[in-house]
Each structure stands twice: as structure tokens, then as C-alpha cells.
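Reopening: C-alpha cells for the protoporphyrin IX containing FE complex, inputs below.
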Amino acid sequence: MGGLLKSSVAKKFAMALSGLFLVLFLAQHFTINLTSVISPDTFNEISHFMGTNFVVQAILQPILIFGVVFHFIMGFVLEIQNRNARAKSYVSYNGSANSSWMSRNMIYSGAVVLAFLGLHFYDFWVPELAHKYIESHPEDATRYYGELVSKFVSPVRTGLYVVSFVFLMLHLLHGFSSSFQSMGVNNKYSEGIRKFTVGYAIIIPLGFIFIAAFHYFNNL
Ligand code: HEM
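Re-run output (same inputs, fresh job):
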């Protein structure tokens, strides 16, 4: 039992750490995408830099992909472990009495975000890989803005993005604030940290919704 608890604490810690890393990625991803609303030239410049810089492509991108896959696999492992623990528990599991709806449904909100990532990779990453490594094109550092905007012509796709961002919000509302608890942070700053995480969990997904909606309406 002690061993199981220990390993489950370690798993939660690893889950929290990978989640915090993804939260950092989201902040930079949001900032870069926000420039597409403010200045297409700036968006093109940053995208070109990110797409051609050796450190970003050969080191940071593989770390990011590892972080996403790790978080997803650990989430599944923890969910199964929690379900088994609940099934065996002598004290009946009390559902809504001792946990929030969001905390009990992390696996589902996470699954929607994962499905979104599938669509998102299909939209942006697959064409980018094809452009770079399969097709042959003359160098064009101004292509990124047009490629992004073309993805928000369809109301269905824009709608799917918006719904996914609402699920991202639900996922972050519980995940980001509980990550500090999972890492054992419990001090006079805890309440301030909790408020910051709630603010982040609401503002960043709303910001992504704004970007998607902006390009959709701008395309009309
Ligand atoms: C309106 C919202 C969003 C827009 C316009 C957008 C745009 C983009 C673009 C243009 C790329 C391609 C970068 C490249 O060329 O490699 C990309 C990649 C990516 N996006 Fe988004 N994104 C949005 C929201 C999100 C969200 C909410 C997530 C996570 C939940 C996310 C996760 C990723 C990941 C993991 C990649 C691959 C990163 C990489 O290039 O290595 N995106 N996105």
C-alpha cells in the first residue's frame, strides 16, 4: 500500500509538472497567435523564425511533443488507477459530495482537447511538414498569415475550435490550480497562486476563442 501510494504521488507530481510545462507552451502559443490579429507582418516574422530556427525545431519541438504525449499517457494511467482505487475502497465514493464536476471529468475534458489536437495537427502541422519536406517551394517568409486565415473560413471548423477551447477552459480550471497542490505547494502564496491559475484558465481559452472568431468574421 505504501509503495502504491508513493508511486501514485510520484505519478501525480509528474502529471503536474508536464501540465505546467504545457501551460507555459499555451502562453507563448497564445501570444504568437495574438499577433495575427494585431499585425500580419509580425505574425509572419515570428512564424518564420519559429519554423526555421534550429533550436526551436530540433530541440524545443521534440520536447513539446514528448510533453504532450507524456501528459496524455499519464492522465490515462492515473484515471485507471483512481477507478481501481475507488472500486476497492471500503468507504463508498461520494461523487459530487467531495469533488467538483471538473475534477471528476478531467479525463473527458482532456480527451476533447486531445481530439482537438488531432484536428489542429491535421490543419497546421501536416501541411507544414508537407510544405517543408515533401513539396518543393521557393522560400516565402510571408505565407504563414494567409495559411492561418484560410483555416477559419469554415463555420464548422471555427465552431469545433471554439467548443474545444471551452473544454480547454474546463480542463485548465481544475488542472492548473491542482498542479501546485500535487507538487506539494502549500504556503502563504497558495491562495494568490490559485487566483492566478483561475484567471489564466479563463483568459487564455477566451483569448483563443477571440482569435478564431476574429479571423472567421474577418473572412466574411
Ligand atoms: C485560435 C487558436 C489557435 C491557432 C490560430 C493556432 C495556430 C497554430 C499554428 C499556425 C500552428 C503551426 C505552427 C507550425 O507551423 O509548426 C500551431 C501548432 C500547434 N498548436 Fe496551435 N493554434 C491555436 C490553438 C491551440 C491550442 C488551444 C493548443 C493546445 C491545446 C494548440 C496546440 C498546438 C500545438 C501542440 C502545435 C504544434 C506546435 C509546433 O509547431 O511544434 N494550439 N498552432
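The mean pLDDT is 91. Residues 2-90+97-219 form a domain with the 3 helical TM bundles of succinate and fumarate reductases fold (CATH 1.20.1300). Marking as resolved unless the reporter disagrees.
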